[in-house]
Write a structure and sequence with these properties.
Helix 7 (about 130-145) links the parallel strand 2 (about 120-125) and strand 3. This protein has helices at about 20-25, 30-35, 40-50, 60-65, 90-100, 100-115, 130-145, 175-180, 210-220, 225-230, 260-265, 295-300, 310-315, 320, 340-355, 360-375, 380-395, 405-425, and strands at about 75-80, 120-125, 160-165, 205-210, 230, 235, 240-245, 250-255, 280-285, 295, 330-335. The protein is globular, with a radius of gyration of 22 Å. Helix 15 (about 340-355) packs antiparallel against helix 18. The strands form 3 sheets. A 5-stranded mixed beta sheet has the order 8-7-11-9-10. The protein is an alpha/beta fold. It has 18 helices and 11 strands. The structure holds flavin mononucleotide and iron/sulfur cluster. Iron/sulfur cluster binds near residues 355, 357, 361 and 362.
Length: about 450
């Protein structure tokens, strides 16, 4: 049974409300930090914990905070990225909906550490019911003296504001988010300058994911070393995984990153196996942007070890034979699923969400969508596969923001691992219109990769 640091109390009745949360030990990290620690000591614990950003890239949080510029007389901000629009990812929603005070508590302690007196939670517009939950929690925290001026008599002031997002995936990219927060169209900014130097309204800003900030609570409560002792390698602490697709038990799970992918998929504690007795075909392990992996490469590393649910293990083998933990959106495909169809759906999504600032992304995403549709309709040619490959290569690394890469990687991985499936659509134009590509070329999940 994985250790739970964030979701342990998720099922306590009324935990959404301050009194119950407090009774269960809530806000101790704020008490501890404000009464007995300096901001630098809080930073030291976060660095020691080895916490890595939970929004997708896995950048070390303590290091990010230490980059925050501190010019005299200029305000600093903490912006919490609750945009969560990555297909397959819904773990922040769970945290905010059921444990809003964990986020509020984490924000206060983090702001204290950064010397920020204001924080903004930028929340996905489609999560229409959650801002009310957060705002209620904020008011409760204020009434109890944890927000506002001179918190707990420490002289530290802190305010939290909730901002509803505009409904665009690109607004999850941190600089697009800042633009949107400033009331402008959510177009990513060219970096540098990075937000830590010039962020919200030109002021030094840290942008962190909801889960990252929530993790600050157990780090301060138990100490950075205790947090780092959970997990393995540079994958310390626990990670929330939102699991969906063809599994028996879709949901949000907190894992301690030492378990294997196989255990995560097949154990009753987590996904409970593939639904309807089907076989595992493939999985997108870290949200729609990361490379898809066929069953054998998902369960085993290229050297034949069992793959673990860690940043390192999931990426072992590079993009040729690995993927990424990403945001933890774990999408499982069974033997009846068509990878070509899935890739087309994703290509359509990225074309729609491209902000259009850079031509490789603006034009390339549209071309990929069109070619994939042509193949799906049984009108493709073998050259189209090569053309697709060429287009995705020309997008990757050539754009202002990583949405271009996010659009390119799924296409590249699908061709790399399932080229035969693309060819089947092309070589069987009539049959492909009457049935989905099944699993004729399925790789046995337990087969160890040579
Ligand atoms: C297109 C795009 C969408 C993104 N969406 C999100 C998101 O919804 N939530 C999130 O935390 N990070 C998202 N990110 C990553 C953010 O830019 C940023 O790296 C992250 O919020 C940093 O927080 P962390 O260090 O705590 O992970 C997205 C990035 C890109 C390129
Ligand atoms: S990569 Fe795409 S989404 Fe990002 S700035 Fe360029 S056009 Fe916009």
């Amino acid at each position: 049974m994985s250790k739970k640091l964030l979701l342990e109390k998720a099922h306590v009745e009324g935990i959404r409300f301050f009194d119950v949360y407090r009774r269960e030990g809530g806000y101790q990290s704020v008490d501890k930090a404000l009464k007995s620690m300096t901001p630098d000591e809080v930073l030291e614990e976060v660095k020691k914990s080895g916490l890595r950003g939970r929004g997708g890239a896995g950048f070390p949080t303590g290091m990010k905070w230490s980059f925050l510029a501190k010019p005299e007389g200029v305000p600093r901000y903490l912006v919490v990225n609750a945009d969560e629009s990555e297909p397959g990812t819904f773990k922040d929603r769970y945290l905010m909906e059921f444990l809003p005070h964990v986020l509020i508590e984490g924000i206060i302690t983090s702001c204290y550490c950064m010397g920020a007196n204001a924080s903004y939670i930028y929340i996905r517009g489609e999560y229409a019911w959650i801002p009310d939950i957060l705002e209620h929690a904020i008011e409760e925290a204020r009434a109890a003296g944890y927000l506002g001026k001179n918190i707990l008599g420490s002289g530290f002031n802190c305010e939290i504001y909730v901002q509803r997002g505009g409904g665009a995936y690109i607004c999850g990219e941190e600089t697009a988010l800042l633009e949107s927060l400033e009331g402008k169209r959510g177009n990513p900014r060219i970096k540098p300058p990075f937000p830590a130097v010039k962020g919200l309204w030109g002021c030094p800003t840290v942008v962190n994911n909801v889960e990252t900030i929530a993790a600050v609570v157990p780090i301060i409560n138990n100490g950075g070393d205790a947090y780092a002792s959970i997990g393995i390698g540079r994958s310390t602490g626990t990670k929330l995984i939102s699991a969906c697709g063809n599994i028996n038990k879709p949901g949000v799970y907190e894992i301690d990153m030492t378990i294997s992918v196989e255990e995560f998929i097949y154990s009753d504690e987590y996904c409970g196996g593939i639904a309807n007795g089907k076989r595992l075909k493939a999985c997108i392990p870290g949200g729609s942007s990361v490379p898809i992996l066929p069953a054998n490469l998902l369960l085993n590393t290229p050297t034949g070890e069992k793959r673990l649910m860690t940043y390192e293990s999931l990426s072992e083998g590079g993009f040729a034979k690995g993927s990424m933990l990403g945001s933890g959106g774990f999408i499982v495909l069974d033997e009846d699923q068509s990878v070509v169809q899935h890739t087309y759906t994703l290509a359509r999504f990225y074309r729609h969400e491209s902000c259009g600032q850079c031509s490789p992304c603006r034009e390339g995403t549209g071309w990929m969508e069109k070619i994939l549709l042509k193949i799906l309709k049984g009108k493709g040619t073998i050259q189209d596969i090569d053309l697709l490959w060429d287009i995705q290569r020309k997008i990757e690394g050539n754009t202002i923001c990583p949405l271009g890469d996010a659009a390119a990687w799924p296409v590249a991985a699908a061709i790399r691992h399932f080229r035969d499936e693309f060819e089947w659509y092309i070589l069987n134009p009539e049959e492909s219109q009457t049935r989905n590509y099944g699993l004729a070329h399925y790789a046995d999940p337990l087969e160890v990769v040579a």
